[in-house]
Design a protein that fits this description.
Chain lengths: ~425, ~325
């Protein structure tokens, strides 16, 4: 695991983080009410108790960066600039929603302005896609970072493996946040994988990783900020495992009776918003006046957007037959931020050699050292990946020396789920 | 004009499109120094460099996923699957992520997936398949399957310039066996347009890819008996050139569909339904099909020969139709 530098979080940032978490929760509470009124057409998936992860990590990005949310990352959408009305109309299947009613939940995106890639329901698929986003950004010279999330359950998919491996091989500017919320639907994490920390897998991929308290929004923010810095410096990808707890069932229909009561109680005491509110109040950052201001701001926008959504029509039936193919121009033409001459002949021309530095050369030491050395699954040594000669390191430069191993988690939460 | 193979036609298209547009990049397994399993990408790395000719791990899902992500920033990636049989490994990325992207949230995916396909070279059950109909059944994808070198080059250029995901099937039996005169300079062949390979008045043979050549050989045989078959090469399966099919049926009043894909759920059934729905009164005989068997592609030459449609099968079916 990695150590991180930790510049102070400003007052303004602290209040932003608090406000976005509160907005996230208010939007979801509003939708829970809508669900009970039968106004949500499909399922409703809660990120209650996980707001610090979506908000803190997305807050570390710049406007030019890209995100791809999963179902419990409404906070990330809000930080990126999505209005609550888009989230309400999506869930209510209205014509005014970003997908015009063709899909629901957080399944929408914005290529042109906010740089958001829509998820699909199949877990892990976003990892190779966002790796491609990062690769394209690098190719175009944009210096962007791509960030996406995956649950503990999603780490067992094949797409997760292929995606992380490609990202590591490409040294792509990808931040992958593993939200370890203890449960994949009804299956505790201890019955999904035989390891304690999902981030330990980073070693096998040859990429960096942090383990962080997912209920501490500042920790999520500063760790993501460090991950983003590393990615922009060409040292990606970076995995962040956020330890947290899913405080509701898989979706609204699921009462989560399989979760031990004391587990909910433990995590209730660690609620990311309540704990942060106390912390900011104690530090004199969040005064009663400021809090009232924030609450009023959130109430106003949520009420306005809720009214907008409730007054929105359903789509006309004939819309179902529209837009199978893109017949017009692309939404996004390539935005070059480097000379095109670098990637066109004659400057792009290379000698097609196998034995390029770090690329497929014979290493007798690696063979002789192989022996019957046991490889512990929990070895904490820092990764030292071979660097491929293509992509980011065309010049065959050696990677920067790795920081010594040190787990970044402040206080490891207790083991969750029944092993 | 130079005589070039179907493989070389595709290779020329890749070279010319990469030279024309820096947004075009290639991504796949062993496509760089090695030049691809069939050498379709040979020389691309030398000319366009490591950033534009990207070798990947053996990860079909990651290849398709990464290409999709690249396309969101306006690039036009051309993926190579080493054999189309391995498209099963990235079925989810293609059918759920790539194909639905534009319809659901308006994000176009201008990418091409190239893949050597088809049988007749004794490649066995996992290197000989024709899985095009899994994808024809998935709204949002375009499917191209050329039979000539001229078309392969022109269709590849159209596929790369198209703003939709295009699956480009390259019949490996035809790769080096088919040669065409190809003009110098830029030209394209439009997607979604079939081509009449041979005019005829007695029976329409609708086909594509390697079976175009089988059907042409059959038509030559039939001509000796005085039966003039019209051979229509679909070239693109999605979108399907329905008008060309209907026009030919209206002319000959008899339809035979020939494909190398297996029978059940093959495109012949879909074409038959189209003709029943829209040209039933023009038919003088039931629609016939000549297809591969509904089995995996067997390995041993006598078994594979039995599996694949042969010239004699096409001749027999067309003759029966003409005499119906």
């Amino acid at each position: 695991m990695e150590t991180k530098t930790n510049p102070a979080v400003t007052r303004e940032q602290q209040l932003d983080l608090y406000r976005f978490m509160l907005l996230n929760r208010t939007v979801e509470d509003t939708m829970t009410n809508l669900f009970r009124q039968n106004k949500i057409v499909g399922g409703l998936y809660s990120s209650l108790g996980q707001e610090a992860i979506s908000v803190g990590t997305t807050y570390a990005l710049e406007k030019r960066d890209w995100i791809a949310p999963m179902i419990r990352n409404i906070g990330g959408l809000l930080v990126k600039g999505v209005r609550p009305r888009d989230i309400f109309t999506q869930h209510m299947a209205r014509y005014t929603s970003p997908t015009l009613g063709k899909d629901g939940t957080s399944h929408f995106g914005d290529l042109k302005n906010l740089h958001i890639v829509s998820p699909i329901s199949m877990l892990g698929d976003l990892i190779p896609v966002m790796t491609g986003v990062a690769m394209a950004g690098r190719y175009l010279g944009q210096k962007i970072v791509a960030l996406t999330w995956i649950g503990d359950g999603g780490t067992s998919t094949g797409a997760f493996h292929e995606g992380v491996n490609l990202a590591a091989q490409q040294r792509a500017a990808l931040v992958l946040v593993i939200e370890n919320n203890g449960w994949a639907y009804s299956t505790p994490v201890g019955r999904q994988v035989p390891i304690e920390h999902l981030a330990d897998r980073a070693k096998a991929y040859g990429c960096r990783a942090f383990i962080e308290d997912g209920n501490d929004v500042e920790a999520m923010f500063t760790t993501a900020r460090e991950a983003v810095r590393l990615c922009r410096a060409g040292e990606g990808p970076v995995i962040i495992e956020a330890k947290t707890m899913r405080m509701r069932g898989h979706a609204q229909h699921d009462p989560a009776e399989y979760v031990p009561k004391e587990m909910f109680e433990y995590w209730k005491r660690r609620d990311p918003i309540e704990t942060y509110e106390k912390r900011l109040a104690a530090a004199g950052v969040l005064t009663d006046k400021k809090k009232a201001e924030i609450l009023e701001g959130i109430r106003a926008v949520v009420q306005e957007d809720l009214a907008f959504a409730e007054n929105s029509p359903f789509p006309p039936p004939e819309l179902a037959e529209s837009a199978i193919y893109c017949e017009g121009p692309l939404l996004v033409e390539p935005q070059w931020e480097r000379p095109v001459a670098e990637v066109t002949p004659p400057r792009s021309s290379v000698k097609p050699e196998w034995r390029k530095a770090g690329r497929g050369e014979f290493q007798p030491d690696a063979v002789e050292g192989a022996g019957a050395v046991p490889r512990s699954g929990t070895a904490p040594a820092a990764p030292s990946p071979r660097v491929s000669g293509d992509g980011a390191r065309r010049d065959g430069a050696k990677p920067a020396a790795r920081a010594p191993s040190k787990r970044a988690a402040k206080s490891a939460p207790p083991v969750r789920g029944r092993k | 004009m130079a005589l070039v193979t179907l493989l070389e036609g595709i290779r020329q298209a890749l070279f010319e499109e990469m030279a024309r547009d820096p947004a075009v990049v290639c991504i796949g397994e062993d496509i760089g120094v090695y030049g691809g399993a069939f050498k379709v990408t040979a020389g691309l790395l030398e000319r366009f460099g490591w950033e534009r000719v990207i070798d990947t791990p053996i990860s079909e899902t990651a290849i398709i996923g990464a290409a999709c992500g690249m396309s969101y920033l306006g690039l036009r990636p051309v993926c190579e699957l080493q054999f189309v049989d391995f498209i099963a490994c990235c079925f989810n990325q293609l059918t759920n992520f790539v194909a639905k992207s534009y319809y659901l949230w308006g994000a176009p995916v201008p990418m091409v997936v190239r893949a050597p396909s088809g049988g007749g070279v004794h490649g066995g059950p996992f290197h000989s398949q024709n899985p095009e109909m899994y994808f024809a059944h998935t709204p949002g994808l375009k499917i191209v399957y050329p039979s000539t070198a001229y078309d392969a080059k022109g269709l590849m250029k159209s596929a790369i310039r198209d703003n939709n995901p295009v699956l480009f099937f390259e019949h490996k039996f035809l790769y080096r066996r088919i040669k065409d005169e190809i003009p110098g300079g830029d030209y394209t062949v439009p997607l979604g347009k079939a081509a009449v390979r041979r005019e005829g008045r007695d029976v329409s043979i609708v086909t594509y890819a390697a079976m175009t050549h089988t059907s042409m050989d059959a038509a030559a045989e039939l001509a000796k008996e005085g039966i003039e078959a019209e051979v229509l090469d679909l070239r693109t399966l999605m979108p399907l050139d329905k008008e060309a099919i209907l026009a030919s049926v209206k002319k000959t009043n008899r339809l035979l569909v020939v494909h190398e894909d297996t029978r059940f759920g093959g495109i012949a059934g879909e074409i038959a339904a189209l003709v029943f729905e829209r040209a039933f009164d023009d038919l003088d005989a039931p629609v016939r099909r000549v297809t591969a068997l509904d089995t995996p592609v067997p390995y041993s030459p006598p078994l594979e020969e039995r599996f694949l449609p042969q010239v004699k099968d096409v001749v027999t079916a067309a003759r029966e139709l003409a005499r119906y």
